[in-house]
Model the fold of this input.
Amino acid sequence: MYFEPNVIYHIYNQGNNRQRIFFNDENYLFFIKKMREFLLPHAEILCYCLMPNHFHWLVFVREVRVAHSVGVTSSHADTPMRPLNDSIGILLRSYTRAINKQENRIGALFREKTKAKDGWESPFVAPGHPDYCKIWKQWDIYGITCLNYIHNNPVRAGLVHHADDWLYSSSQDFSGKRKGSLCNQALARELLALP
Done:
């Protein structure tokens, strides 16, 4: 995946062969803890939804590479930099290890490639042009469409009747049913022109 700072991305993946990735409430909560640890240094989470066999994140990337501590370093210049791609990979691998242990299984839990879509499209630019794939869709329309799609996933799957009935998404935070701190609602409202 290729990320740029100051861009909204819809990031998603699903269980290998569409298998379950969450087996109980604790799994969902553990995954959310991993999201805090590995995504927040790079990005503001605008919204999310964790489904039994897949997940969706809408994020605003601040930094593509961030410093992370690996032992003791002598100065900030010596601090290793971790790309967002690596942080996502570590999140998914560490979660997979925990689930494999819990479920007494081996092998891949997620599909090989996590996908990321941004708000760019390229209808009229030739592939050789430096701005190929860089014609910006209307950011608020792109973002609000993704936010609604993400929050309504459990409704479309028949798991709940209303988006804010699903515990494992940010829909409850946006509706005021819960005071979650994972998503930056103020930024989401500003960027996506939400009320």
Remarks:
- The helical segments are 25-39, 84-103, 139-151, 153-156, 171-175, 185-192.
- The longest helix spans residues 84-103.
- The CA atoms of residues 100 and 106 lie 6 Å apart.
- Strands lie at 7-14, 43-51, 54-61, 65-67, 81-83, 115-118, 120-121, 135-136.
